[in-house]
Amino acid sequence: MKTHRLNAYALVCLLILSFWAPLGFAQTKDETGQAPRDIIIEDLLSGTDIVKPDSDIAPDVPAPKIVKEKIKERATHSEDKHTIILPNNDENDQNEKDQDKVQVYQPTKAIFSLSSKEYLALRGNKIAPQLTLTYHVSTQKKGMLLPITSNVELILGHDYAAIRTKNKQNLVTKIYDFAVDRRLLVHPKKNKNDEQSPQIHFENISLYAPIYRNVSTVKAITRGGKLKTIPMEKGKTLDAFWVESAMSWTAQPHAPTLNIQAKKTTLNIFKKNQLIFKAKFKKQAYTQDGFQHSLLALAHHEWPLHPNVLGVFSKYNAPPSYLKMLSFGPRALGGETQIWTLIDAKTTKAKFPLPEHALNVIEHDPIDPFAFIINEAVRGRALGGYPDIEALKETFTSVLSETTPKDAPLDHTLDRNMELWIIGQKYHAYTGKCTPNSDDSICKTIQEIETSEAEKSESLQDFIKAMTLAKDGKSSSKIIKLILPYLYDAQTPAFMTRIAALAGAKMTKLAIKTLENELGIENFNATELLQSALAKDPYDPHTYLALAQIYAANGAFETSWDIYDALRAGIPTAGILDLKISKVEDKLRSQAAGYFSPRSKTQNIKDNLH
Question: What is the pLDDT of residue 66?
């Protein structure tokens, strides 16, 4: 019987993951120099774009006694050993194929791991009109003796907007790309002495992630728009208007009472006789409508302005020469004032403001191992290439018929039972064909293995029991107890690790702690287990879906969207899943349309695809 050991790639990935705590690979920060938006309810947002999963990876955590004893016990029975059969994993054959045809990766979606050249090729990088507005920005909170000042550039294209500081110590560009709905952060690498180097890095996340954060934050804090005041520390309160202003989105069904004084080139807006927004505009209008649309979308993302204020602001078709914005928040209960004064405006022709030599998260050190695994899978380089379903079926048939005479009743050895069952479960994970009434021969065989009263190995019995409980949605603790003795075994199939992780994800922290104490284990973490499952099998779409859902549940929307995007763009087995993320994106576009600049009628990303 021909079997293959666990691919070296998977083992390397598992080793990397066990020694490096991945906290999400879209780690963008607000480093543009101007005062960032106030963080609403700091426990909810944690002051960063990425919220960490429940716990970091604890390297070198020893296997608990129950696991060691069971592995040792199984090792003494040769019939209970099994290896994972991986399809299309002959390195020599793969090398010959690579020599015959060199495949060039052609992205269909601007996922997080694209190189700068790939990104530019996808979204388009033609020379086009560009408006650059340079402002002197002054930010001052109540009680500050002197304001914080900086010079900031707003770079406007017909389908993108960027904001960049001009201070030498903080050369950071944040780009909102409305052509492909991404947000980029471009910045120089810093050395050990916190000095900038010539090397340029960039992070790339879905534009939907921060928008979803804003919308969900407003909904959560205002209870869907029902609360008009938000309780703060020391008995103080915050008007819900300022929460909505911080996120530029409102969940309230009614408009706030504002005194709006709009003239041809000036705009003053008062709330309860307090000036909250003042603007002056140039007499010369925008040369292109796209510039106006891009600035308005940028304002939704960057400025602490209420949607009703932005609605009035959007009616002016000339660049602002002066802005004064008042905002309140947990970090500025006494108020914060920003003043933007235009010092230069110029229209040029330029390319999209992402440097062609900028390095993405995969190209610079240190490399995030989790991102590396997904990038390799999307490009079809993990475990010898994309899954070959026909090869998997052939392997199954070969194992089934190797010692079984034709027309003989099914009577496998314990080894072959396990191998056939593992191959069959992988086949189902990739194809989704093994439904209860399926006529597929592979599905029928694994069902017969599961229901047969013939003797089964202890590990196979445990796996089948755990999977049955998982399908029925029952007893998460029982599922973990059944699978736990095998989690530390490299031969355990990835889908069983996934099942254990999902069982743990459904348990409360208190229940997990109780289980840890009962079994003598530490740091049982669903996210870590799913990452290790992905390293073993980076083409199982169910693992991607589970990871995306868990990251979203922990508040890490950016990483969640990265995983969804990679799944939709480059994992060929994803077609079997009913992904609802696209509907979520459509709903966001409908609810929070102001965050998305209208695309040019002549802009068609598909034209850039080969």
Answer: 57
